[in-house]
Amino acid sequence: MNNNTITFRNNPIQEDLQNVKRIIESTGFFYDFEIDVAVELVDERLNKGLESGYLFTFIEIDNEVAGYACFGLIPCTVCSYDLYWIAVDNKFRGQGLGKKLMTEIEKEIAKIGGHNIYIETSAREKYIPTQNFYISCNCTLEARFKDFYDIDDDKLVYVKKV
Ligand SMILES: CC(C)(COP(=O)(O)OP(=O)(O)OC[C@H]1O[C@@H](n2cnc3c(N)ncnc32)[C@H](O)[C@@H]1OP(=O)(O)O)[C@@H](O)C(=O)NCCC(=O)NCCS
Hints:
Layout: E1 6-9, H1 16-27, H2 32-48, E2 55-61, E3 64-73, E4 80-88, H3 97-111, E5 116-122, H4 128-136, E6 140-150, E7 153-161
Parallel strand pairs: 4-5
Antiparallel strand pairs: 1-2, 2-3, 3-4, 5-7, 6-7
Helix pairs in contact: 1-2
């Protein structure tokens, strides 16, 4: 990773419909309907622009899109943002890109007046690596909703102050 050029891009382009699908599918973490939703958010942004409410940051390695995050202002708040998606292509995972992406979106959110980033994830065992990732990014576990996704599948809400 040392000699690679890492860049960030905030404006989605048409090819990102495929990039997002590829990245999300590669993780093996999401159901088909979730993959469709992730792609729909890119489509919505391409069609409606910033009016869509969906902001994106893509991380590229030597011009290849390696990961992305999608976030947006929570309606009826002035400084709180939801992180809707964050994912790194499986072949690039565990190399520090997720953390770089997180740092970049924190900067972006701070620039537009945000103070809190809310991140939801499942408490299921499969998501322990994801929980560890948020903890290593200094996010604080703020709430737990019992049986939220299903019986014995609680929702965890992390917050990152920026
Ligand atoms: C979660 C995700 C975005 C993290 O990106 P990444 O590039 O793999 O993470 P990084 O290499 O930047 O790791 C950053 C930190 O998280 C920790 N971490 C990342 N993956 C981990 C794992 N599988 N197990 C334990 N810790 C992990 C690392 O130890 C590292 O901590 P450190 O800096 O203190 O050493 C990525 O793994 C991913 O796409 N996962 C599947 C999709 C997902 O769960 N998305 C979030 C829900 S929408």
